[in-house]
Structures are given as C-alpha cells and as structure tokens.
Write the structure tokens for this entry.
Amino acid sequence: MDRMTDLASVAARAGVSLATASRVLSGNGPASAASRELVRAAAAELGYRPHPVARLLAQGRGTRVVLAIRDRRPSAWADPFGGRAAAGAALAADRAGLGVALRYLPLDCRGRLAEIAADRSVAALVLAGHDRATLEALPRGLRVATIGPSAGAGADVDSAAGFAALLRHLHDRGRRRIALVGGPRWLAAAGAPRRAYARMMREAGLPHRAVTGDVTAARGRLGARRILSRWPDTDAIVTISDATAAGVLQVLAERGIRVPDDVAVTGFDDVPLAGAIRPGLTTASHPVERIAEAACQAALDGSAGMRLFPSRAVVRQTT
Amino acid sequence: MDRMTDLASVAARAGVSLATASRVLSGNGPASAASRELVRAAAAELGYRPHPVARLLAQGRGTRVVLAIRDRRPSAWADPFGGRAAAGAALAADRAGLGVALRYLPLDCRGRLAEIAADRSVAALVLAGHDRATLEALPRGLRVATIGPSAGAGADVDSAAGFAALLRHLHDRGRRRIALVGGPRWLAAAGAPRRAYARMMREAGLPHRAVTGDVTAARGRLGARRILSRWPDTDAIVTISDATAAGVLQVLAERGIRVPDDVAVTGFDDVPLAGAIRPGLTTASHPVERIAEAACQAALDGSAGMRLFPSRAVVRQTT
DNA sequence: CTGTTAGCGCTTTCAT
DNA sequence: ATGAAAGCGCTAACAG
C-alpha cells in the first residue's frame, strides 16, 4: 500500500501552512474563504483522508467508548438486551470515528471503574445496571452517560410508564387480582416495574401479590406455581421479561388454565419471537438500540440531561 | 485530574533511557534482566499506564475493528444475530485495547470496502454476509477476517452439519416427506442449509420439496401454506430460522394439524424464547458470540485459517 | 487571518 | 544491551 497523503502534502499543494490546512479541515479556528477554498480543493485532488488516531492523540482524547454493564451474572452480556445495546452504541460510536468495547462489571465495581478512568484509550463510559452508590463512586474527569436512571447525562426507557400501561390495560379488561413475578433487588432494571406495580395496585385498591423471579423461564415457572398456590384466584400475571412470561405460560398450560380467559399474562421487552408464538405474547417493546445510541452520543458530547424513550405496550393474545 | 505519568518519567526513575523503558514495557526488543527489573519496579511505583493511542499512532496501526454485514436490508443489524456478533467482537476487541464499529454494507459494496480500507483508524475488518465476488473485491493491505466461508482467515459455523443433523434426526424419527422453507439467494447464511437439504434428500431418495422464504414469521406462514397446498402429505417442515418456524407453527395450529404428531417442525439458531415456548422448538444452536470473537481475533492476529464452530441440534418438542 | 513551533506519548531505526 | 534522535500525523498555543 503506497503511503497515504498527509496534511502536510495538502498544505503544500494549497500553498498554505500546516496550521491553516488543519484549521479548515478540522473546522476549528478561523480561515479566510480564499484559503478555505484552496485547502478543500487540494484535499480533494489528493484524496486526503485525515488520520483519526493522530488527531485523537493530539487532542488527548480516547479512541473508544466503553459500554459497561453492572450485573450479578458475568454472563449479563448474553441477555437479548446486551447485544442490542452493543449494536446501538457501536453504530453511534462509528459516527464519531470511534469504536466500542464491552465490559462486565460485578456489583461492587469501584476498582473497575477506576481502571477504566485510568485507561487513556477510553473516550467515554456508558454505564448500565448501576445503582446510586455506583454513580457516586464514578471517577471524576471521565465522560460518562448512563442507560437507566441518573442525575447526569444519559438515556433511559420509561419502563415505569410501559409497565403501568400494561397494568392499566389489564384493569380495563376487567382483571382485578393481578400478580407480579418481579426481579431481585440487585437487578436495576426491575425496580421501575416493581414500583409501578406497587403503586397501581395501591391506587386501584387491588391486592398486592408479588413474588421474586429474574429474567429466565425457569423462574417464571417457579413464580407461577407460587402465585397459583398462594392466590389461586389470580386472574392476571405480569412479569419483567418475556422469557419469564413464557415460563408462566408453560405452567398455566400444564394445569389446563386458559390464557387469556382464566389468566392473562404479560411479558416485558418484546423479544423477536414474542409476536410469532401463539398465543402472541402481550408485552412492552423498548428501543434498546436507540437508547444505547443516545447514551453513547450524550457521553461523547458531554451534554447533560437525560433523554427518555417510550416503553410501548404491545397487546397481543395473552391478555 | 493531575497529569498521568508517562514513559519518560518511568525511564528517568529507573535510570535508563526512554528506549529501554519502551522495550521492556512493550515486550519488544532486547533488555537485560537488570534493567528489566528496574523499569518494572519504577512503572509499578509510579502507577504507570501506557497510552494506547500513542502506541498505536507510533506503530501506524488502527484503533478499531469494523464489523461489517453485507445484506439486502439496511436493518440487518436488528437481527438477533447482529447483536450477538457485535457483543462477541467487542469483547475480543477490548482485550486488544481496541473498540468495535458496526457498518451496514449493501450487496454491491466495493465502494464501501475501499472507504474502510482508506480509513486509517481501522485496525481490521470482520466481514459477514459476503459472497465470492465480495471477497475478490477486498482491498489489499487491510487485515480481514470473515464470518462465513472464505479461503482466508476467519471463523464460521458448520451450519451444513447442523442442518444435516436436524434432517437426520427427522429421518430417524420416521419422517420421509420433509419440506424446506429456505432463504433467498442473496442471503449468504441460507446457502449451506439449502445445500445440506438438497444433498440429504437426494442421498436418502426422498422427494425434494423446497419453497423460498426469509427469516421472518410472515414468510414462514406463507411458506407453510404453499407447502401444504402443493404437498399435502408433508410430514416435516424444516426452516432456516426460528421465527420462520414459529410462522409455520401458527399455520399448522390454525389448521388443526398436530405438531409433532402430524408434522414435525424445526427452526435454526435457537433464539432466547425458542426453548421457553410450548411446544419447545427443535432447532440448532450457534455460538455466535464466540464465532465473532474468533473472527475478530483472527483479523487482528493476521493469522490465516478458518476456525469452524459446531452447529448443535437441540431437540425439543416440535419433532 | 496566518505561519511557526512545540508538543501528544510511544516506537523504532541507527549507532555505539 | 543500550541511548540518542527521528518520526507517527495532527492540534493548539503563540506571535505576528
């Protein structure tokens, strides 16, 4: 591969200094219309391509954004959510000439965060699954955005609203004994649904029937069994993940309980197969890629403020 | 944030030259045990962290690996496969101090490939969905690995074997009139299953019954209807994606055709919900993350040779 | 508005 | 085995 043309060649060809060429091509600093024209032309003729790495080094900025998920399970990236987030972030990073790296963070992640901050190849950090304490332990001097609630910059999905919409839908359909297979405390994403459920039940004067699950079908089965034995007259079961809902559906089918006639069921997330199975799973869909994209963008821009994305209820046949 | 220690400080503290410090810390070039010890100690005491960007610039290498998928649909990244591949690649890239950028490539992608090659921030390209012509159009002087068949470096899933295993399983269960909902020509990943099907049917002396679909439930429904009207005595339907299989299952259910008693069905890929629904979908599972990881690694190492990963049949209740 | 000149932090010849 | 010095390609003060 023959040597690629550099800024110096462009400057020479345009008859201006290196600095001027840099100014017009990078868009920073002043430049007369005349030289701007000259430099542009020279760059085009020479097929000049800036060298992002050199630029970043000179500016002291990093080359990649780290997308980190804090979770109890080291396999957290295997969740359907993980891949979608990675894809969204990588798309956004690409627009900035950067790349994204994935990291898994244990629940206690102070050390890891410090490591990330010390890595000068890191341009920004996008954090998911954090709690209050994590946010406070965030090293200063590191561009950060969050996926999920936080005071700083980032993006989030309004899962409280989405979950509430699902509950309201059930209520409208006449369901009054609604049970929840919620998530464990450490699962940050499960907090909003749990609170939305508690609030709705309280306000509507309905009984609070919650058991703890996670995001697997196995725990969905377990949850359903517990619910049916503790509250046999339950007429709806809401869950925090589609897989959990699928587990619930299994138990219901085994026991000859009709869905949605006897018991309605809802999932959460709208994974690929949710709409393809029969009965189609009522759930809420989340623009995960766009959320990750927005968070990535926010981290890079250093813009403060949270952007909230909708959690849209998708009514199918299980309700 | 106070200024971070650089190599010069380490060298000074160790009482050696910058060059020597560089040699021991980067592991390239000779160094006496004595100075090695000195430099290591100094680095540790100072909490020295190398600056990856500077290193990469000095070496003239890029900072990110581009993961590009060639497809007819610009939305290709939204496939379940996309996110998993992105996650795997980002994990591998991270280990090398790099990041991953995602690109969509149209079927005719020569221009795009040239662009990628001209971008000096690109350390390597991992290509998926390519065909023969694409491989030949690959710009020289660019580290490349493929996900999918190729003569060079990369990783692939042995989907021919996986699909054949599924067919053999059906045959063992006594199925003799097996129909295929295949993929369109342009969908590279559909080639191996199609050929495996054609070959198996021929060798077993069974009738060849194939219709064209894609990776959606809608085309699965359409495919199933076509198959049932053209070959009403079909006793098994194999597909190239779980969503397609789900579509097939819908049509079968609508018509009161029992699964697997009357007709067996198989999917392909083992998406998250495949095992959670009832009847559980028989399919083949693919270590997509590990494949992307291996391809990424291969591209960065510049190591030639393809690594083949198994496509493992997962028998559940639809067969 | 423009040119000169130092860096950015590390690698890598080239002598010694 | 080691050191001096020349880059890698670009940006950003600083003068003018």
In short: The mean pLDDT of chain A is 94. Chain A has three domains: 3-58, 64-156+289-308, 159-287.
